[in-house]
Amino acid sequence: MLSVNRAAYKLVEKLCDDKDDYGVAVSKMHSGATVIDAGIQAKGGSAAGGMITEICMGGSGQARILLMHYGTLELPTVQIQTHHPAIATLGSQSAAWQIKSGDFTAIGSGPARALALKPKDMYEDIGYKDEADLAIIVLETSQKPPNEIVDKLASECRVQPSRLFIILTPTTSLAGSVQISGRIIETGIHKLRKLGLDPRTIEYACGSAPVAPVHPKFTDAMGRTNDAILYGGVVYVALRHDDDEKLKAIVNNATSKASRWYGQLFKEIFKQANCDFYKIDPLLFAPAALVINNLETGSVHRAGEVNVEMLKRSIGLVA
After folding, report:
1. Could you give the domains of the chain?
2. Which of 76, 113, 263, 273 is most enclosed, with most CB atoms within 10 A?
């Protein structure tokens, strides 16, 4: 079976070997764990963000960055595709591991989740787990993890600390902004799963999302990166389903437009939820537009739309 950690390790090696080209800094913890800084002290950049996106997907997806037009707005855009949709996204990329110790907090994603099975129900749904002897985790954080966190991560992944690789991507960095937009397919598949679709029926997925211009303040950066997906992200999925009417109903509720909070900037929504992600309407976390091709019947279902005005508002081009 495909090992997301072993596949991603080839990319980690390249990131470390070409660290000057990618603008990352590589260091070792007391335990021997490798830490790759992609934007805290190191410069990082879009190339690092693209590579980290592919690492997050367990080496089972491809990412490229190009400039695209959104009406009268031009923004760099990350395009993603995968032929292993469930494993690459839910089995690896999903930012579903909450990590906290003292003052240190981070959102964990990437191949290491498939060793620690975080969260377990997601892996039960897709029938997957990894058994590699090394672990790769991406932490969305602006701090270097303390020793106790590193030891805990290695323990939960059941690997030696010297076989643990930790990549740090602050939301306020270019690499961080790229890798967040690079989660566009995962966002769509996660929403489809929440609506009752079996993710194992998905055979191919591709998508794109604008890369939010970087802001030095965390709250503003978080708002922009979420808005980029909610109002600019597009996902295309090819799957097999035996009920087109049921599939159509799922698609109609699978974009951000289905949420009662649609039309507000994410920064404003976050404040309304008292800065608690878990109080935000889960229907909101979805791409702006979704297209599904049912390979069983040949039918195509579509919902949502790219909202250029909200993208402009998000980055301060209009009031």
Report:
1. 4-314 (3.30.1030.10)
2. 113
